Amino acid sequence: MDSTQSIREHYEKYPYPSRDIVSCKSLKNYCGWVLSVFNESSQSFLEGKSILEAGCGTGEFSCSLALNGANVKAFDLSASSVKRANQLKKNFSVKNVSFSQQDIFSFTPLKKYDIVFSLGVLHHTPQPKKAFSLLANCVKENGFICVGVYNRFGRLKQRIRKSIVGQMSRDSESKINHAETLFHSGSSFRGRHWLADKYSVPIESYHSVSSCLSWLSSSGFSFVGSKPEISSFPLLSELSWLFSGQGSFFTFCGKKLAQGE
Ligand SMILES: C[S@@+](CC[C@H](N)C(=O)[O-])C[C@H]1O[C@@H](n2cnc3c(N)ncnc32)[C@H](O)[C@@H]1O
Fold first, then answer.
1. Distance from the alpha carbon of residue 17 to the mean position of ligand 1, in angstroms
2. Best substitution site from 121, 123, 204, 248 to test ligand 1's pocket, by max atoms within 8 Å of Cβ?
């Protein structure tokens, strides 16, 4: 089985994030955390923007963007995730969002977008850098790309936990059971789909801040912001995440420079 097929099979069985959204208000607020990555504080920033989300999972983030006035096209490799995303859209009567099943590596954009998001996806692909450059090509001049990937240092504690669970069992259900018993018993975790995403995804890679910044510059983007924030010495920031518990998931944003800039 090739790597993309094994990833698809994982997310067919455990569509992510499968959040239990209880109200339209909470769905609208779902994407609010990402604004700081753009150095924006008002959700009105999203109004009227054309947005592509690559690897949208079960659609919470895309629906949230659309409820904040964006026009969103979203796709995912997993059919069961897309089905849930369409159900969520229906449940909350979300307009201006469409979902389809597609692979980043064969996606052909019919237009360019103001913003392209891909959160928690590229580190599950066989070629994260290539996937980044394909998505970067979908952004308009002066538009933005916003990507979240596992950080090589910030993720270390979770990598060790995943590796312990991986030594104890081979199949996903047992991994989830072991992870729950060893590391999450009594705590309020988000359920089996969340545990599956943390402990049994067959492919994941880990990235340095400097490689993320080089993806941006090599595709003609300037750095805008990130979560967690980084200092002028990215390596020091990353090292501090080893101890602070931050940076397990590093989200960064770049602005596409106009020709000649
Ligand atoms: C951890 S989930 C993230 C979902 C969502 N972006 C979020 O942040 O909640 C990763 C998603 O990436 C999708 N994915 C992985 N490889 C992909 C590819 N080559 N093309 C499209 N989607 C992909 C998976 O199907 C899965 O839904």
1. 10
2. 121
- Please check whether residues 50 and 127 belong to one and the same domain: yes
Q: pLDDT per residue over 213-250, tens digit each?
A: 999 999 999 999 999 999 999 999 999 999 898 989 99
pLDDT digits over 46-61, tens only? 999 999 999 999 999 9
As for ligand 1, residues whose beta carbon falls within 6 Å of it are 4, 7, 11, 16-17, 54-57, 61, 76-78, 81, 103-105, 119-121, 124-125, 197
Using CB atoms within 10 Å of the CB of residue 11, give its burial: 0 to 12 exposed, 13 to 18 middle, 19+ buried. Answer: buried
Segments in the chain below pLDDT 70: 1, 187-189, 260-261
Task: Please indicate, yes or no, whether residues 97 and 195 belong to a single structural domain of this protein.
Answer: no
Domain that holds residue 109: 3-151+206-231+247-256
